[in-house]
Amino acid sequence: MVEAPAYPKLAGLRCAVLGAGGFLGGALAAALCDRGAVVRGYGRLANPDARDERIAWSNAEFSDASSLASVLDGQQAVFHCIGSSLPATSNGDPAGALLDDVYGTLKLLDLCVASGVTKVVFASSGGTVYGVPPRVPTPESAPTNPISAYGINKLVVEKYLALYRRLHGLDYRVLRIANPYGPGQSPLRPQGVVASMVRAALTGAAVEIWGTGEVTRDFLYVDDVVDALLRSAEYDGPERIFNVGSGVGRTVNDLLAAVQDAFGGAPFAVVRKPARIADVPVSVLDATLARRALGWEPKTGLREGILQTAAWMRGALTDFQVPLS
Predict the structure, then answer these.
(1) Any idea where the domains of the chain sit in the sequence?
(2) DSSP codes of every residue in 230-297
(3) Strand 179-181 and strand 77-80: pairing?
């Protein structure tokens, strides 16, 4: 893990991490424990035997208001990293995505107010809230015109956070995160192109690429994302919304070449599929504000991040039921 600051305000912080059984939430919960926070984890825990014993776990659905209320009782801060929909599939059921992600978050915010939670840190999406951006790299001041129900819902939650601050004094920070990758990310889920390519390099499986492969993304190593989340929890300044990205755009074809290079240049099979209408053509974030206000900057280069991901996945391949060929 990249060495990070001491985060003095996190020691003893009573906090809940929603989505702590997932990729980003799991990494965040562990990092909070490392810094002396008292952590309650909430969400789906696929493998209870692998849980972090430092975390008090509640294995429950986001819609379970009773369980969620019990977890929030006595907490000072909430990290909202839970979500039910995906950008590529949310347009197929906008009403369901709205119910799960927006209505569920409104109930969460009501429970936060009732429980005396003082701050909510929300993991939003820098790759979807802007839609097709008029400017690249894209700053926080850019227009927000999502082209997926997923992006719309993330933006709506941001607006409700602002409303609850105005109505109830509930403090919040929003991180519009680029495309995170790294250890802990399953290669079998629809999101996570780095993980799927690393799996292919390790197993000989084919890589699926949607469209021409010229879709451009801002890839960010998970430790750098966690660092931004921790810094935003400590931050008490006037800014509310931060882009969190590397500022470097790479096409999917570029990424494929980078993974091949990290594995010694050996090619692997590629399966081309039709482009998806919900995929923004270019998403690269301007993180100048996070650098200035949070003192944050990404520290892990793409090659190093790919190798770290590969080292983790070599030990986890049996969990994904993909034997080495």
Answers:
(1) 10-182+219-247+280-298
(2) HHHHH--SS--EEEES-S--EEHHHHHHHHHHHTTS----EEEE---TTS-SB--B--HHHHHHH---
(3) unpaired
Sequence-distant (≥ 6) Cβ neighbours of residue 283 within 8 angstroms = 126, 127, 128, 130, 133, 138, 178, 179, 216, 217, 218, 249
How far, rounded to the nearest angstrom, does the alpha carbon of residue 22 sit from its chain's CA centroid?
A: 9
Q: How far apart are the first and last CA of the chain?
A: 30
Active site residue 150: yes
| H-helix or E-strand spanning residue 104 | helix 104-115
In the set 7, 42, 150, 172, the catalytic residue is 150
Exposure of 237 by Cβ count < 10 A (0-12 exposed, 13-18 middle, 19+ buried)? exposed
| Residue 281 preceded by cis peptide, ω within 30 | no
The torsion angles phi and psi of 149, rounded to 5 degrees, stand at -60, -30
14-18/77-80 β-pairing: parallel
Each residue's pLDDT tens digit in the chain (325 positions)? 444 456 889 999 999 999 999 999 999 999 999 999 999 999 988 777 667 899 999 999 999 999 999 999 999 999 999 987 788 788 899 999 999 899 999 999 999 999 999 999 999 999 999 999 999 999 999 999 999 999 999 999 999 999 999 999 999 999 999 999 999 999 987 779 999 999 999 988 898 899 999 999 999 999 999 999 999 999 999 999 999 999 999 999 999 999 999 999 877 888 999 998 889 999 999 999 999 999 999 999 999 999 999 999 998 765 554 433 3
Query: Options 3.40.80.10, 3.40.50.1820, 3.30.450.40, 3.40.50.720; which CATH number does 10-182+219-247+280-298 get?
Result: 3.40.50.720
Report strand pairing: 216-217 vs 250-251. Answer: antiparallel
User: What is the radius of gyration, based on Cα positions, of the chain?
Assistant: 19
SS (H, E, C) 34-77: HCCCEEEEEECCCCHHHCCCCCEEEECCCCCHHHHHHHHCCCCE
